[in-house]
Prior knowledge:
alpha+beta, 7-stranded mixed beta sheet, 4 helices, binds zinc ion
Amino acid sequence: xxxxxxxxxxxxxxxxxxxxxxxxxxxxxxxxxxxxxxxxxxxxxxxxxxxxxxxxxxxxxxxxxxxxxxxxxxxxxxxxxxxxxxxxxxxxxxxxxxxxxxxxxxxxxxxxxxxxxxxxxxxxxxxxxxxx
Length: 132
Ligand SMILES: [Zn+2]
């Protein structure tokens, strides 16, 4: 099989990206770490939630009658200074250990990946319940 351009290791390369939890389904778009954009000390996925949601909506991959902010969402960045990944996500996602585990598995993230909430990543349910 061809297609993997990693000569140095058999391990799959970790990825950065953005994601949603739409009902029980993970919707993810990612970039290999080596192809990620540089932003200060960070390697990041270049896209944003608003644009990607609009594209997926057009392709019929996500429900058309809902807003990108409505579903719990998050992002994975890599800090090139500390050499650590951080997974920022809505509380509704971080609370679900099986979803976090699946995300880390799909994106090949190391076990020392930091988990964090982010004030931007609050779904309608979070915003309605708790405006800390
Ligand atoms: Zn939420």
